[in-house]
Design a protein that fits this description.
Involved in the regulation of the intracellular balance of NAD and NADP, and is a key enzyme in the biosynthesis of NADP. Catalyzes specifically the phosphorylation on 2'-hydroxyl of the adenosine moiety of NAD to yield NADP. The active site is at residue 45. Its cofactor is a divalent metal cation. It holds the Pfam family NAD_kinase. It is an enzyme of class 2 (transferase). With 265 residues, the protein is of the alpha+beta class. It folds into two domains: 2-96 and 247-261, Rossmann fold (3-Layer(aba) Sandwich); 102-240, Sandwich (Tumour Suppressor Smad4), CATH 2.60.200.30. The chain has five helices and 16 strands. The chain has helices spanning 11-26, 45-54, 83-91, 163-166, 253-261, and strands at 2-7, 30-31, 38-43, 63-68, 78-79, 98-109, 116-120, 123-128, 133-139, 142-155, 178-186, 199-202, 207-211, 217-221, 224-227, 231-245. The strands form two sheets. Strands 6, 7, 8, 9, 10, 11, 12, 13, 14, 15 and 16 form an eleven-stranded antiparallel beta sheet that branches. The chain has a five-stranded parallel beta sheet with strand order 2-1-3-4-5, sandwiched between helices. α1 (11-26) links the parallel β1 (2-7) and β2 (30-31). The chain is elongated and about 65 Å long. The two termini are 37 Å apart. Bound molecules: NADP nicotinamide-adenine-dinucleotide phosphate. NADP nicotinamide-adenine-dinucleotide phosphate binds next to α2 and α4.
Length: 265
């Protein structure tokens, strides 16, 4: 097995990484930063997001594992004092893995510009700088609503506890193979009307956000900011690819939600 480690710049994460590297070497596990079978992230959920994007071109060949050095995360199952146990679990090669849905993001442009394609682990948002965003929202090619407001967020089930939750989206159990559309400060009055609540869209369906022509849109894909001129539409659907986690340690999802947002006990 070949392992790559991605860590954040916190002192604790560097220390944990140093210790982990020693343990891996002691157990003859090869380190390979280019073509690993397993990517271990050391830090928080944000670190796991970075690790995902670094290796998102190899999702069929790579699994992820998260060690958290701060508070319990949604993608980080292992604690920093459990490194020995973690390395042992890699040596016995348990089949305990789990996979989660990803969001396929396709941006199309006016004129002959080629489409751009991204994968999101948490979410993708569309916003407009300082002006009201005006867009048609189509589900399965049929007009659903005309949106006016600050923007829209489209999230995966595992991303539902991130930005989506902050804007009033629902928390989705990660075993649900679907994606969620949530509004960011929609304008609702007698002239403009949207549904006004988040919606969960099936994996068999797709969403198109058709933008009014303008050159000041910002598209985000997890931590990535994309400023592009001439955007015509953004298409969202559940991706064919999934993210795989190795040596997965089951924790009751709602327990994790409670621990993160309500209380520790
Ligand atoms: P950041 O601004 O440094 O951190 C954002 C926070 O979101 C961190 O506390 C991070 O946890 C947490 N987070 C990330 N993924 C999560 C998930 N799936 N469930 C619950 N919490 C999660 O940003 P970053 O580290 O570059 O990560 C980018 C992500 O941050 C975006 O995808 C977006 O979802 C989220 N974000 C949220 C808000 C908001 O809620 N208002 C604003 C900006 C960005 P850790 O501390 O464990 O890393």
């Amino acid at each position: 097995m070949k392992v790559a480690i991605v860590h954040n710049h916190e002192h604790k994460s560097s220390e944990v990484t140093r210790h982990l590297l020693l343990l891996l070497k002691k157990n003859n596990i090869e380190i390979d930063d280019h073509r690993p079978d397993l990517v271990i992230s050391v830090g928080g959920d944000g670190t796991l997001l970075s690790a995902f994007h670094r290796f998102s071109h190899r999702l069929d060949d790579v699994s992820f594992l998260g060690v958290h050095t701060g508070h319990l995360g949604f993608y980080t199952d292992w604690r920093d004092y459990e490194l020995e146990e973690l390395v042992q679990s890699l040596l016995v090669h348990q089949e305990k893995s789990i996979s989660y849905p990803l969001l396929d993001v396709k941006i199309s442009f006016h004129g002959n510009k080629p489409e751009k394609h991204f994968l999101a682990l948490n979410e993708s948002t569309i916003k407009r700088a300082n002006r009201t965003m005006v867009a048609d929202v189509l589900i399965k090619d049929e007009l659903f609503e005309k949106f006016r407001g600050d923007g829209l967020s489209v999230s995966t089930p595992t991303g539902s506890t991130a930005y989506n939750k902050s804007i009033g989206g629902a928390v989705l159990h990660p075993s649900i193979n679907a994606f969620q559309l949530a509004e960011i400060a929609s304008l609702n009055n007698r002239v403009f009307r949207t549904l006004g609540s988040p919606i969960v869209i099936a994996h068999t369906e797709w969403l198109e956000i058709k933008l009014q022509e303008s050159n000041d849109y910002l598209i985000t894909v997890d931590q990535l900011d994309i400023y592009q001129d001439d955007i015509k539409s953004i298409y969202y659907r559940i991706a064919d690819e999934r993210i795989h986690f190795a040596s997965y340690r089951h924790m009751h999802f709602w327990h994790r939600v409670k621990d993160a947002f309500i209380s520790e006990d």
